[in-house]
Design brief:
Blueprint: H1 9-19, H2 27-33, E1 38-42, E2 45-48, E3 53-56, H3 59-62, H4 71-83, H5 96-108, E4 113-119, H6 122-138, E5 147-151, H7 160-165, H8 169-173, E6 182-185, H9 190-193, H10 199-217, E7 222-227, H11 243-253, E8 257-261, H12 275-279, E9 285-288, E10 300-305, H13 306-312, H14 327-342, H15 345-362, E11 370-376, E12 379-384, H16 400-411, E13 414-415, E14 417-419, E15 422-425, H17 433-443
Parallel strand pairs: 3-13, 5-6, 5-7, 7-8, 8-9
Antiparallel strand pairs: 1-2, 2-3, 4-10, 9-10, 11-12, 12-15, 14-15
Helix pairs in contact: 1-2, 4-14, 5-14, 10-11, 15-17
The protein binds pyridoxal-5'-phosphate (PLP).
Length: 444
C-alpha cells in the first residue's frame, strides 16, 4: 500500500514504530502508545490524523516564527527549484540566493556583523564556530588560544561538536563527550541555583565564574565564550539583568571572542531581531538557524564581525558543507525574512504580543503548583514546585511532574514542552492576543 494521509492512524503509527527512529526518544515506550500523526498546519494551529486542532505553543521546535501555511514560501521554494535547485559555493562559484541572503543578514544583524558562513542547521553552524574561533587565533600567531568556555545546561546542538559545547549531562553521558578543549561554567538559573542570593548578586556571581575560569586557564589559552542570550532547551532561563553586562565586560577585558547562539533567540523571538539586542550584547559571532527560514527549509549559519571575517578571510578556511548556502533554502529564508520585516513581527513581539503574554503569563503565578512564571518576548517558562516559598523540587526522578503536565496539555490540544519540571512555550510570532488567552487558559 501507498502510505498517505488517508491511512488509518493506527496503521500509520504501526509503520512509524516499525521503521522510523525518532530523535531524543525512547522508541519502545513510544511504540506502546503510538506517535501523534500531524498532517497540516495553519497559523499557530496543527491538525492531527484524528482531526484534532492543536495550538502549537512551541512553533514546531522554536522555529516556525512566521506561522504555518505561508503560500509565499512555497512559491519561493518552487520557483528556485525550477531555476537552480542546487549548486555549491565551494570552488569559486556563487549564486544569487546565497548572495542576497548574506547581504540581507548583514543589513539586519547589529553592529559590524556583516559576513555569513552558511550551514544546514544550528548544530552544523556551531561546529563551524569551533573551528572558526580556533583558526581566528592560530592565524594571528596564538595557536594556544583554543579553549572554548560554555555553560552547564546550555544547548548548542546534537553533533559531536555541538553536544560537546552544550552542557547537557545526558548528552555528555552518551558518546564519550565532550571533545577536548571545552570547559563549562555555571548557568544564571536563579530559581534553581541562586540559594539565598538576590537574583542580581547571583547574576554577577555566575558571570564571575567565567572570569575565574579564564584566570585558571590563562587568558592566552581561551578562544571564546559561547552562550544563548536566553537559554532555550535548558528551560527558558531568563538571566538576571546583572548577568550579561558583566559577561560582556569580562570578554572585552580578556580579549575573548563572544559567540551568541541565536538559534532560538534570533529573528524576533525576544522582541528584537536578535536576542543580543534585547540583552545589550556585542557578539563577535552569532549562530543562526530555525527562525531564519521559519523552519520551512533546513538552514543555519554563523554571522561574523568584520574583525573575525578579516582574519579568517586571510587564510584558506578548510571547512564547509555540501548544503552551505543551499539555493532553495536561501531563497525560502530570504522570502521568510521579507515576511518578518513586512509584518514587523519582531516589533509586534516587542510592543504588543510579548508584553501581552508577559501579563497573562504572570497571572499563572498564583497557581498552587507554579513557583515562577517568566517570559522574554514570546518565550515563557513555568517552574513547577510542590512548595513555592521553599523553591522546592518534586521528589526524584526530576521531570515526572513536568511530563504529566505536558501529557495533560497535549491531550487538551496544547503543545507545551517540559524540561524537567519546567514547562516552556515559544509560540509562532503571529500568535494573536485571543490565541495567547487560549494558550494561557489551556496551560492553567
Ligand atoms: N543552538 C541552540 C541554542 C538551539 O536551541 C539548537 C536547537 O534547538 C541548536 C543550536 C541546534 O540546532 P539544530 O537542531 O538546527 O542543529
Amino acid at each position: 500500500t501507498r502510505i498517505t494521509n488517508h491511512l488509518p492512524t493506527a496503521e500509520l503509527q504501526a509503520l512509524d514504530a516499525a521503521h522510523h527512529m525518532h530523535p531524543f526518544t525512547h522508541a519502545a515506550g513510544l511504540a506502546q502508545k503510538g506517535a501523534r500523526v500531524i498532517l497540516r498546519g495553519e497559523g499557530c494551529w496543527l491538525t492531527d490524523s484524528e482531526g484534532h486542532r492543536i495550538l502549537d505553543g512551541m512553533a514546531g521546535l522554536w522555529c516556525v516564527n512566521a506561522g504555518y501555511g505561508r503560500e509565499e514560501l512555497a512559491q519561493a521554494a518552487a520557483a528556485q527549484m525550477r531555476e537552480l535547485p542546487f549548486y555549491n559555493t565551494f570552488f569559486q562559484t556563487t549564486h544569487v540566493p546565497a548572495i542576497a541572503l548574506a547581504a540581507k543578514l548583514a543589513e539586519l544583524a547589529p553592529g559590524n556583523l556583516n559576513h555569513v558562513f552558511f550551514a544546514g542547521s544550528g548544530s552544523e553552524a556551531n561546529d563551524t564556530n569551533i573551528r572558526l574561533v580556533r583558526q581566528f587565533w592560530a592565524a594571528q600567531g596564538k595557536p594556544d588560544k583554543q579553549v572554548i568556555i560554555s555553560r552547564r545546561n546550555a544547548y548548542h546542538g546534537s553533533t559531536m561538536g555541538g553536544a560537546s559545547l552544550g552542557g547537557m549531562a545526558a548528552m555528555h553521558a552518551q558518546g564519550g563527550l565532550p571533545i577536548p578543549g571545552i570547559v563549562h561554567v555555571g548557568q544564571p538559573h536563579w530559581w534553581a541555583e541562586g540559594g539565598e542570593m538576590t537574583p542580581e548578586a547571583f547574576g554577577i556571581a555566575r558571570a564571575r565564574e567565567l572570569e575565574a575560569a579564564i584566570a585558571d586557564l590563562g587568558e592566552d589559552r581561551v578562544a571564546a565564550f559561547i552562550a544563548e542570550p536566553v537559554q532555550g532547551a535548558g528551560g527558558v532561563i531568563v538571566p538576571p539583568a546583572s548577568y550579561w553586562p558583566e559577561v560582556q565586560r569580562i570578554c572585552d577585558a580578556h580579549d575573548i571572542l563572544l559567540i551568541a547562539d541565536e538559534v532560538i533567540t534570533g529573528f524576533g523571538r525576544t522582541g528584537n531581531w536578535f536576542g543580543s539586542q534585547t540583552m545589550g550584547l556585542r557578539p563577535d559571532i552569532m549562530t543562526i538557524a530555525k527562525g531564519l527560514s521559519s523552519g520551512y527549509q533546513p538552514i543555519g549559519g554563523s554571522i561574523l564581525s568584520d574583525r573575525v571575517a578579516e582574519v579568517i578571510g586571510g587564510i584558506e578556511f578548510n571547512h564547509g558543507y555540501t548544503y552551505s548556502g543551499h539555493p532553495v533554502a536561501a531563497a525560502v529564508a530570504l522570502a521568510n525574512l521579507r515576511i518578518l520585516e513586512d509584518e514587523d513581527l519582531p516589533g509586534r513581539v516587542g510592543r504588543i504580543t510579548g508584553p501581552y503574554l508577559a501579563r497573562a503569563w504572570a497571572g499563572l503565578a498564583d497557581h498552587p503548583l507554579v513557583g515562577a512564571a517568566e517570559t522574554c518576548g514570546l518565550m515563557g517558562a513555568l517552574q513547577l514546585t510542590p512548595d513555592k516559598a521553599a523553591r522546592a523540587r518534586f521528589a526524584a526522578p526530576e521531570g515526572t511532574a513536568g511530563l504529566r503536565a505536558r501529557e495533560r496539555c497535549f491531550a487538551n490540544d496544547l503543545v507545551m514542552r517540559h524540561v524537567g519540571d519546567r514547562m516552556i512555550i515559544a509560540p509562532p510570532l503571529v500568535i494573536s492576543e485571543d490565541e495567547v488567552d487560549m494558550l494561557v487558559a489551556r496551560a492553567r
